[in-house]
Amino acid sequence: KRPKTIKEIFEETNTDKLWRHGYHRYYETQLAPYREIDGLRILEIGADSGISLGAWLQYFTKPAAVQGVAYGVDATAAKVTACKLMPKYCEQLTIYSLDQSDKTALANMSAKNPEGWDIIIDDASHYPPHQIISFQQLWPKLRPGGLYVVEDIETSYVDTGDVYGYPLIAGIGKAPPGNAVEQFKRLADVVSRKHFGQPEFTVFEGVDHDVADVDFADGLIFVP
To answer: Which of 74, 94, 111, 200 could form a disulfide with 67 if both were Cys (CB 3.0 to 4.6 A apart)?
Structure first.
């Protein structure tokens, strides 16, 4: 029997990663190398008992941990709801309630997961400064060969309005932290730093020392 494509799984779960954003165009190839990893560990910031956790549980064949982070939820109640929706995966599911810009909370969550994660996806507040903080704190917890994904980077191009009550100070070409895309663009120089004779060059306070690639897509950033 042919395994379902990520597009088919997104269609079944009705995630906006498909119908609003079209992320399946990139996830199909970016996630394929991880699909059959035995004991895969995935963390999605911005997910609790909902749709995307179910999509990952369908897509990855042997996950050891599928974890979600949401802001201001009752983590215990969210886990109960998730287990009702996906009873056979209850053991693999963990839900955390925290603010993705709270460095202490992110550190505490990381300490509870000494194994780290193979894939980390940021689909949380979409607020550019928060996207930068979360990467800074969580990139070191990515296992060797892992993948960090930042979704909804369109907020870096908006120069008016707000995101969940946070005023946007972004816009094309604006400096970080208001524009997260500009910060991640700088990783291109980290990747190639040996070519300009600065082996210690960093844009994320040293945690990016092992970044070897950065890929930009429509609404997404992939750091493998």
So the answer is: 94
